[in-house]
TrEMBL record:
Transmembrane segments: none annotated. This is Leucine dehydrogenase. It comes from Lacicoccus alkaliphilus DSM 16010. InterPro entries: Aminoacid_DH-like_N_sf (IPR046346), Glu/Leu/Phe/Val/Trp_DH (IPR006095), Glu/Leu/Phe/Val/Trp_DH_C (IPR006096), Glu/Leu/Phe/Val/Trp_DH_dimer (IPR006097), Glu/Phe/Leu/Val/Trp_DH_bac/arc (IPR016211), NAD(P)-bd_dom_sf (IPR036291). The lineage of its organism: Bacteria, Bacillati, Bacillota, Bacilli, Bacillales. NAD(+) binds at residues 179-184.
Length: 365
C-alpha cells in the first residue's frame, strides 16, 4: 500500500526513524530532489494512526517540491513528521536521535522548524548534522522568518494589485486582513507605510488592538471580514477559508495572503474565483519568503541577499499571471505549471554530464 501511494506522485524515499531510548518515532519523506537537496520542516503531531502520519508526510513533502521550485530555489521537496505529543515527548535525546537520521541521508534532505518544533529543537539536531536550517542566530541563522514572509506577501500583493487594478500602488487601497499575527502585523506595517487602509479581524483582541493603535486599522467581526468593502483580501490565519460559502460574499477583486492551503478545494475554488473575476495570488508562492530566507542559511546567511531574493517573489508572480493568461488556466494551476516546468527543464539540463555538479554542500567540486 505504501509503494502504491509513492507511485501516485513519483515519490523518491520514505524513511522510518525509530529510537527506543528517546521514544522517537518519525518519518522523513523525500518527494523530489531534481532541483537539489529536499528541504522541508519537521512537524510534530499527535497522529492517531501511522497511516495518518504517512499520508500527511507524503502530502506535505510534495507541497514543498512545488513551493521550493516555484520560489526559484535550488532545492527539492521533503518533510518530516514526528509522531508524538510536543508538550510531553520532547527531549534533547529525541531530537539528537532525529538529527542522526537526517545526517544518515548525507544531505539529500535538510530539515527546519515547523508546526510544534522550535529553534531549540533545531539546535539539538544541529549537534548531529549540518543538514538543518532555522537554528539559533548565534549559529548563523537568519532568525524568525516571519518578517521576511511578510515582505514577500507585500511584494506579491503589489504585483497582484497591478493585475487587478492596472498598477501596483497600494496607496489608498483598502486591504481586509484576516488574522494579524506575526506575519500579518509586519505586512500591515508595509501597507500602512504605503498609505493603504486596513480592515482587520482576529480571535485575539490584543492583536486587533495593536493594529488599530499602530496603523489606524478598522476592526470587524470574525465572519464579517469576508463581506467587507475592500480592494484586496489578505487571509493570514487559517486554511480552507476560500470555499462555497465565502466566495459569494466577496466584494474584493483580489486575494493575496500568507495562510497555507487557502482554497478549500484547489481546483474547484480557484476556477470559481477566476469565473468571478477575482485575481487569486497562489498561497504557496505568496508565502515563500520564509523558506527563501531559511534556505539562504545554506550559503552562509546574508540578510541583504535574502531580502533581494524575497523581493523576487514579485517576478515569480509576474510569471504566474503570464502562464495563466497564455494557457487559459487558473493562477493556482499556473503556479503548479511554473514549478513543474522548472523541474522538467532542470532535469534536462542535468542530463548533460558535468564534473562540476553543484550543490549547497559541494560548491565547485
Ligand atoms: N510565519 C511564517 O514565516 C509563515 C510562512 C509561511 C506561511 N505562514 C502561514 O501564515 C499564517 C500566519 O502565520 P503567523 O506566523 O503570522 O501565525 P500567527 O499564529 O502569529 O498568526 C495567526 C493569527 O491569526 C489569528 N487567528 C486564528 N484564527 C483566526 C480566525 N478564525 N479569524 C481571525 N484570526 C484568527 C491568531 O489569533 C493570530 O493572531 C499561517 O497560516 C501560517 O501557516 C507563515
Amino acid at each position: 500500500m505504501i509503494f502504491e501511494k509513492m507511485e501516485q506522485y513519483d515519490y523518491e524515499q520514505l524513511v522510518f526513524c525509530h529510537d527506543e531510548a528517546s521514544g522517537l518515532k518519525a518519518i522523513i519523506c523525500i518527494h523530489d530532489s531534481t532541483l537539489g537537496p529536499a528541504l522541508g520542516g519537521a512537524r510534530m503531531w499527535n497522529y492517531e494512526t501511522e497511516e495518518e502520519a504517512i499520508t500527511d508526510v507524503l502530502r506535505l513533502a510534495k507541497g514543498m517540491t512545488y513551493k521550493n521550485a516555484a520560489a526559484g530555489l535550488n532545492l527539492g521537496g521533503g518533510k518530516t513528521v514526528i509522531m508524538g505529543d510536543a508538550k510531553k515527548d520532547k527531549s534533547e535525546a529525541f531530537f539528537r536521535a532525529l538529527g542522526r537520521y537526517v545526517n544518515s541521508l548525507g544531505g539529500r534532505y535538510i530539515t527546519a522548524e515547523d508546526v510544534n518544533t522550535t529553534v531549540q529543537d533545531m539546535d539539538y539536531i544541529y549537534q548531529e548534522t549540518p543538514y538543518v536550517c532555522g537554528i539559533s542566530e548565534s549559529y548563523g541563522s537568519g532568525g524568525d522568518p516571519s518578517p521576511k514572509t511578510a515582505l514577500g506577501v507585500y511584494m506579491a500583493m503589489k504585483r497582484t494589485a497591478k493585475e487587478a487594478y492596472g498598477n501596483d500602488s497600494l496607496s489608498e487601497k483598502t486591504i481586509a486582513v484576516q488574522g494579524v499575527g506575526a506575519v500579518a502585523y509586519k505586512m500591515c506595517e508595509y501597507l500602512h507605510e504605503e498609505g493603504a487602509r486596513l480592515i482587520v479581524s482576529d480571535i485575539n483582541q490584543e492583536a486587533v488592538d495593536r493594529a488599530v493603535n499602530d496603523f489606524g486599522a478598522t476592526q470587524v467581526g470574525l465572519d464579517e471580514i469576508y463581506s467587507v468593502e475592500a480592494d484586496i483580501f489578505a487571509p493570514c490565519a487559517l486554511g480552507g477559508i476560500i470555499n462555497d460559502e465565502t466566495i459569494p460574499q466577496f466584494k474584493f477583486k483580489a486575494i493575496c495572503g500568507s495562510a497555507n492551503n487557502q482554497l478549500d478545494d484547489a481546483e474547484k475554488h480557484s476556477n470559481m474565483l477566476a469565473e468571478n473575476n477575482i485575481v487569486y495570488a497562489p498561497d504557496y508562492v505568496v508565502n515563500s519568503g520564509g523558506v527563501i530566507n531559511v534556505a539562504d542559511e545554506l550559503e552562509g546567511y546574508d540578510e541583504d541577499r535574502a531580502v533581494m531574493k524575497v523581493k523576487g517573489i514579485y517576478e515569480q508572480m509576474d510569471k504566474i499571471f503570464t502562464i495563466a493568461k497564455e494557457q487559459g488556466i487558473s493562477t493556482a494551476q499556473a503556479a503548479d505549471r511554473l514549478a513543474e516546468t522548472r523541474i522538467e527543464q532542470m532535469m534536462r539540463v542535468k542530463s548533460t554530464f558535468s564534473l562540476n555538479e553543484k550543490n549547497q554542500f559541494n560548491k565547485g567540486k
